[in-house]
Amino acid sequence: MTVIAIDGPAGAGKSSIARALAHRLGFEFLDTGAMYRAIALAALERGIDIEDADALTALVDDVEIDLQGDVVTLDGRDVSKVIRGPDVTAAVSKVAAVKGVRRAMAAMQRTRADAGNVVIEGRDIGSAVVPAADLKIFLTASKEERARRRARQLGLATDEESLGELARTIEDRDRADAEREVSPFVMANDAVEVDSTGKDIDTIVDEIARAARGVIDER
Ligand code: CDP
Predict the structure, then answer these.
(1) CA-14 nearest atom, ligand 1
(2) Which of 57, 83, 142, 183 would be 124's cystine partner, CB 3.0–4.6 Å?
């Protein structure tokens, strides 16, 4: 089994790149952020206080999350779109900071990593979930570019003021992820840093696919 971990901050292009890379290599693709988003959605829908760690920990045993490619289901319902909405985005970092939530999600993620060749995208895959991953990429981009990409992806305004505001909310979330106690967002020591600023997706996928083939050939 080959595991490729792609970690990085919000808007660095992780999802697009991880998906395209998985397709190129014939691997599965696992978006771990979508799992945390689905739990955050379940909490919001059930009126659970996102500050209540015990209630959130109990919630993970009470819901069924499944991910197949880009389709995310929560108790059998397709929530792929709604988990990208602003309410979930505003709540997700709080939910993802809860130890019991992370433990359950990481266990699901490791099961997937053990099951086959997979590209796993997230914040702590190379540093904590699958530290033995065959290739670890830490994908970054400038603050401005990350805000621009996110605005385009969500169909938001791209004037300077709106982009500045979006950049601030992205930075706040990255800071919350980096400052949490459990499995904080950090670059693994042995990760390869790839800066996607000003490069198109194909160029980066080519670059990572070359590195991945090198790793696969070595095995
Ligand atoms: O797409 P974007 O980069 O905005 O975020 P995402 O990958 O969907 O992740 C949403 C949130 O889930 C992050 O801000 C983290 O709080 C959390 N997350 C995490 O804690 N660990 C992961 N492996 C993946 C996501």
Answers:
(1) 3
(2) 183
